[in-house]
Design brief:
With 219 residues, the chain is an all-alpha fold. The chain has helices at residues 2-43, 52-65, 70-76, 78-83, 90-114, 119-127, 132-143, 145-166, 173-183, 188-217. Belongs to the binding-protein-dependent transport system permease family.
């Protein structure tokens, strides 16, 4: 316990690093994943821009990267990170790896949530003269906004988990804090302090996501 008290000044910067990685990873991975999901939805058979070749390629890419365990992906993308000028350790590398890992999962979640839009809504929009592009980029995302918010909430919780794993490659954050000061020093108090902060973050994200989705769905 005394060791935990001594390390409290380091706990808060570690929390800030975790939130920093989550925010940037959600920004980059979330945007890329949304575009991937939109492309999957648009090019599937019977959709707005059906294209068997494009859909097949995207589907294979997503199915290839999505099941890779994140700890393995961390090692696998190190050469790619170095190729674009990012070191294979540190917060920047953590953001890079998490963004890559998350965008494929987000792409699949976005595709599945866009599919919840009823065909009748799209047919009504087409009958009213709306272009396919307008329907794809404006109508469909708006109609599926509630499920999308819940999907992104789920992803943010997964990002918290990824930031903890990224601590294994000195990416900073609560994962590295718990690993270096708790696990390696045989101090469960420090480890559980990091766990408690992570639980608070996850509960806060889940509460806000559920509240926002509920408000959207009631409109």
């Amino acid at each position: 316990m005394d060791r935990l008290i001594d390390l409290l000044p380091e706990l808060w910067p570690a929390t800030a690093e975790t939130l920093y990685m989550i925010t940037l990873s959600l920004l980059f991975g979330g945007l890329a994943g949304f575009l991937i999901g939109l492309a999957l939805y648009a090019t599937r058979a019977g959709s707005l821009f059906p294209n068997r070749v494009v859909f097949g390629i995207l589907n294979v890419i997503v199915n290839t990267f999505r099941p890779i365990p994140f700890i393995i992906l961390l090692a696998a993308v190190q050469p790619l990170a170095r190729a674009v000028g990012i070191r294979g350790i540190g917060i920047e590398f953590g953001v890079f790896a998490i963004s890559i890992a998350s965008m494929f999962a987000i792409g699949r979640i976005v595709e599945q949530n866009l599919l919840t839009v009823r065909p009748g809504v799209i047919e009504a929009a087409r009958a009213a003269g709306a272009s396919r592009s307008r329907i794809l980029f404006r109508l469909v995302p708006r109609e599926s906004l509630g499920p999308l918010v819940l999907g992104y909430t789920f992803i943010v919780v997964a990002l918290v988990d990824m930031t903890a794993i990224a601590g294994a490659v000195a990416a900073g954050g609560l994962g590295q804090f718990a690993l270096v000061n708790g696990f390696r020093q045989f101090n469960p108090w420090v480890t559980w302090a990091a766990v408690l902060v992570i639980v608070v973050i996850v509960q806060g994200v889940q509460f806000l996501g559920n509240a926002l989705a509920r408000r959207i769905l009631r409109r």
